[in-house]
Design a protein that fits this description.
Elements (H helix, E strand, L loop, with lengths): L3 E4 L2 E4 L4 E7 L8 E7 L6 E7 L4 E3 L7 E6 L4 E6 L8 E9 L1 E4 L3 E6 L1
Parallel strand pairs: 2-11
Antiparallel strand pairs: 1-3, 3-8, 4-5, 4-9, 5-6, 7-8, 9-10, 9-11
């Protein structure tokens, strides 16, 4: 079983930056991949970024060049650095981990004002 705890959300002006953190309850070495998803009001949850235990990453087209996912194995934590934020990035951001099955965090709100 994996418990995921997100932090770092908040309110920021357009063009600003935020860094989200997701702390896992077990070693992330054993986790196939960890990812960030987001869900805006009235929209489906969508993949934002994913990092495999090999270090390979992939990103949604809408965030390429602005967001960066990274991991700190010693802290069992994955980060999402979000730069040049836009109002359309406003959503609840969820941490996700695949370890035999999918696990989800509780979500953290990111609001970008214009």
């Amino acid at each position: 079983q994996v418990q995921l705890v997100e932090s770092g959300g908040g309110l920021v002006q357009a063009g600003g930056s935020l860094r989200l953190s997701c702390a896992a309850s077990r070693s992330i070495f054993s986790i196939n991949y960890m990812a960030w998803y987001r869900q805006a009001p009235g929209k489906q949850r969508e993949l934002v970024a994913r990092i495999f235990n090999s270090g390979t990453t992939n990103y949604a087209d809408s965030v390429k060049g602005r967001f960066a996912i990274s991991r700190d194995n010693a802290k069992n934590t994955v980060y999402l650095q979000m730069n040049s934020l836009k109002p359309e990035d406003t959503a609840v951001y969820y941490c996700n981990a695949l370890f035999r099955t999918n696990y989800w965090g509780q979500g953290t709100q990111v609001t970008v004002s214009s």
